[in-house]
Amino acid sequence: METNERKIYLQKRRKNKILVIATQLLILIAFIGIWELLANKEIIDSFITSQPSRIWATLTNLGANDLIKHIQVTTYETIVGFLLGTTLGIVIAIILWWSNFLAKVADPYLVVLNSLPKVALGPIIIIWVGAGTQAIIVMAIAISLVVTILENLNGFLRTDENLIKMAKTFKANKLQILTKIILPANISTFISSLKVNIGLSLVGVISGEFLVSKAGLGYLIVYGGQVFKLDLVMTSVIILGILAGIMYGIVLLLEKFILNSKKFK
Amino acid sequence: MEKILEIKNVCKTYQTPKGEIEAIKDINFDIKSGEFVSIIGPSGCGKSTLLSIISGLEDKTSGEILIEGKKIEGISSEIGYMLQKDCLLEWRTIWSNVMLGLELKGIKSKESKIYVENLLKKYHLYEFKDKYPQELSGGMRQRVALIRTLAIKPKILLLDEAFSALDYQTRIMVTNDIYSILRKERITALIVTHDISEAISMSDRIIVLTKRPGTIKNIHQLKFETKERDPISYRESPKFSEYFNTLWKELDANGN
């Protein structure tokens, strides 16, 4: 039986939720509406600001600008960079956890590399691996790698000492401590790495594409800017936003799946 | 009764960048089979260090430790160890938690499985074997942790401030619970605690350590008139407060 108070409480909660979503939608619609209106009345110059209807036209006319191809290129580069960066980062974190000596030696280098703006490495990367997809992927890895190493190593080192002590009382060796205690205890660290890295890989890919590419959304943005096709630039940025949202959504689904399979088999 | 554990002239000195710290010095005592012995002392007297050394988690500087007359080095299979917290792995089921010790030692067998199953049944945990630790109460979790340790069939069990993470009421219940399991399974136990009443209610003997460097100040053999052993009823015995006062003063004289 629901009490009256509970009903009122639930109603209030639901109302609040609807209000938040409605306001969010309203802001978006108003923004687009005012933008379109101002452009139509020629109060703002749509040559510089573009306008929603033209963005829509560009978006629906996918073939004209090879949009699909560019989206595919960026997606591919991001996924490869993301997977390589995350895996490599976790593997290196495991190695550093394993060897206290190596971790101490690596520490100052990691700190410096972490604060270094990775985009500055762009020209070096291009010279080393060649101007092309490889350079873009390396850039994506460069941006996510150090953060992944630091965050995971930190997570490993913060694992409850008592659990390790408990395992040791059963004569656990280092490999057993790693596989039976450290790794499963850090599932949430891995998931947060995935979440951060999907965004970082996109940053790496786009800045890589700014520098070298012949295809991809980053290329499209730079190209559009150079020839003053603001419709194309805006459309690319919007697609990029959607792409980032979808990738983040996939990671969230993955998180849900992992947490469910762990606890409620 | 035969001696199960012998501690001979055990010393421990820690090396730190600032210098040497003598944690414990010349510790000598024995434990007989089936006995419950508590170690109490002011905080920082090295009582937990002593337990870690016996368990093999830490090295000793000098001295010998013997189990049933045989010298042991490092972590011994004859010794079970219970930490302050239950240390159950949240991502494993109860069954998989109690099997952890056997799994880590690589001695999982049909017999050991049956043995553990029987322990779970005996202590009313069998029906929870597919649940996860977070679904169990604090007292049940402690019992699971105990069975995980008993699964490897230790000759002697070390308890390091066990249950101290629990609230007072649960703790008294759990102490009683664990105590009766240990007696039933005829386990010898060495308990480190800072709680005088817990030491009195559980032990046959109490070893009092001095402050650092910890040495043995006194060993008290406890005698109660009641035959029925049970920590809660011990607390009501007139002897209890007598022992309490003696031990309290002894620790106080240490400058605790």
Characteristics:
heterodimer; A: 265 residues; mainly alpha; MetI-like fold; 2 domains; 12 helices; flat; B: 256 residues; alpha/beta; Rossmann fold; 4-stranded antiparallel beta sheet; 10 strands; 35% helix; globular
Question: What topology emerges from the helices and strands here?
Answer:
The complex is a heterodimer of chains A (265) and B (256).
Chain A: H1 4-40, H2 46-49, H3 52-60, H4 67-98, H5 100-115, H6 122-129, H7 133-157, H8 161-169, H9 174-185, H10 187-212, H11 217-226, H12 230-263
Helix pairs in contact in A: 3-12, 4-5, 4-7, 4-10, 4-11, 6-7, 7-10, 8-9, 10-11, 10-12, 11-12
Chain B: E1 3-16, E2 19-32, E3 36-40, H1 47-55, E4 62-67, E5 70-71, E6 79-82, H2 94-98, H3 100-105, H4 110-122, H5 138-150, E7 156-160, H6 168-184, E8 188-192, H7 196-202, E9 205-209, E10 216-221, H8 231-234, H9 238-253
Parallel strand pairs in B: 3-8, 3-9, 6-7, 7-8
Antiparallel strand pairs in B: 1-2, 1-4, 4-5, 9-10
Question: Could you describe the 3D structure shown?
Answer:
Chain A has twelve helices and no strands. Chain A is an all-alpha fold. Chain B folds into two domains: 3-78 and 156-253, P-loop containing nucleotide triphosphate hydrolases (Rossmann fold), CATH 3.40.50; 89-153, no CATH class. Chain B contains nine helices and ten strands. Chain B is globular, with a radius of gyration of 18 Å. The chains are: A mainly alpha (265), B alpha/beta (256). Chains A and B meet through helix 8 and helix 9 of A and strand 6 and helix 3 of B.
